[in-house]
Design a protein that fits this description.
By secondary structure, the chain is α+β, with helices and mostly antiparallel strands. It folds into two domains: about 5-175, Jelly Rolls, CATH 2.60.120.280; about 190-295, Orthogonal Bundle (Arc Repressor Mutant, subunit A), CATH 1.10.10.60. The protein contains nine helices and eleven strands. Strands 2-9-4-7-11 form a five-stranded antiparallel sheet, covered by helices on one side. It has a four-stranded antiparallel sheet with strand order 3-8-5-6, with no helix packed on it. Helix 1 runs antiparallel to helix 2. The termini are far apart.
């Protein structure tokens, strides 16, 4: 069958997923190690979550080792081959909900029309295999998709769409976090840097000067700044400012604290500076932000 697949750039808001099929594959763990399924073409988006695995997955020309908790993300037009043993959930997705394919009789092995290969900021970041740290979260989401699909009713499509969007969102968050995505090597300073990030997150209202963080980490200020920027792709001061503003937004909307009290709670000792930074980043003053998002 001649491929009519196109590569199409879309907005994130264009994503409106429909589940074409989902199933739980458990027989693979009883198969002989190294047993290979036949190679096949991928016609739609396929997402797998592995419950157990000592196997591999061929995607195009690369063979990936697969372990428990891994996510495999396949795109239309790829060539794939499963190599046992493993067990997994698998979901076949119509990403924009516009293919018109029949979910009642969907057969991923049957020759059919290719879904378009869509690109955007989120989709482009997702690699063929993601090594995750939140196994329980993914297990819950994939299991919820399966249960809703096999017990579907007239409104199941709404919940299924929401669950697939949650999976995509969680993948994006995990991939953006260098401490959960498994994409950075574990260096001699890896765990110390992770502790620094956790310290910042848990003490966002305290003194988080580079000098203080350097003392906490046992690294020199210059080296800590370089290591943090290289690993997180953001300078350490910028990271702290973003977290402080996120907390300030929440306090403005959910508490009755004054702007000055919130500024101090979020680590801004200079109240005018807090107002300046907030307005420059959010485009409104703290008081205007509170008025906009809080019903009084």
């Amino acid at each position: 069958m001649e491929s009519q697949m196109k590569t199409v750039e879309i907005l994130i808001n264009d994503i409106s997923p429909r589940v074409l099929k989902t199933s739980l594959f458990t027989a693979g763990m009883d198969m002989q190690e190294g047993y290979k399924f036949r190679k096949r073409e991928v016609y739609d988006y396929e997402i797998e979550f592995f419950l157990s695995s000592e196997g591999f997955m061929l995607i195009d020309e690369t063979i990936y080792p697969i372990k428990k908790g891994d996510i495999v993300f396949r795109r239309p037009g790829q060539i794939t081959q499963a190599i046992m043993p493993f067990s997994c959930y698998v979901i076949f997705v119509d990403l924009l909900g516009n293919t018109g394919k029949d979910s009642e009789n969907y057969d991923f092995e049957k020759e059919q029309k290719f879904q378009n290969n869509y690109t955007n900021e989120m989709l482009n970041l997702i690699p063929p295999v993601v090594h995750t740290s939140f196994n329980d979260r993914y297990h819950y989401l994939f299991d919820a998709v399966l249960k809703e699909f096999i017990n579907s009713n007239e409104v199941s499509s709404v919940l299924l769409k929401a669950l697939i969007l949650q999976i995509l969102h969680q993948l994006y968050i995990d991939i953006k976090n260098p401490f959960t995505n498994g994409f950075i090597p574990i260096s001699s300073h890896y765990f110390m840097l992770k502790k620094v990030v956790e310290y910042i997150q848990n003490n966002i209202g305290d003194d988080l000067s580079l000098k203080r963080l350097a003392e906490f980490s046992g690294l020199s200020p210059n080296y800590l700044h370089m290591l943090f920027t290289k690993t997180m792709n953001i300078p350490i001061n910028e990271y702290i400012t973003i977290l402080r503003l996120e907390k300030a937004k929440g306090c403005l909307v959910t508490t009755d604290s004054s702007v000055s009290e919130i500024a101090l709670e979020c680590g801004f000792e200079n109240i005018p500076y807090f107002s300046y930074v907030f307005k420059r980043r959010v485009n409104v003053s703290p008081s205007q932000f509170r008025k906009k998002y809080r019903y009084l």
